[in-house]
Amino acid sequence: MVELLIAELHGKSLRCITSARGTHFQGLGAAARSLRAQRHISNKMCKKLLNIDAAFGLSRHITTISVANFLSELDKELFKPESAVHPKILDTDDSSSESISTSTCTTTSTCISVPSASSPVLRPLGCRDLLLE
Q1: Is it the case that residue 69 has pLDDT exceeding 80?
Q2: Using CA atoms, how far apart are residues 99 and 87, in angstroms rounded to an integer?
């Protein structure tokens, strides 16, 4: 649904600019930069048009696989194991006391620690785990 609104806004904006200026542009981004350079639109309007163009480009090519790949790349950037200090969520045996602490994690992702009576269980949690929760 949203992708249809973005496509409609993109197409109508480009057709409006083409009609108003009497010039064909390669795309909305090119039109926005050209109009800004000629001082036909403000910097603020140019930025809005560029954002619409970027959103349209993303919406045309996004898939669940590309989302998963991006989140995997983001994980690698954010959680480098050699210098990473990650938050840990500690859930103690007392259900009324829940705390968050900081600890060094040896994995490439954030760790959630849920201590039991015997020993804590560490499970890597990264950006991809947030996908479609």
Answers
A1: yes
A2: 11
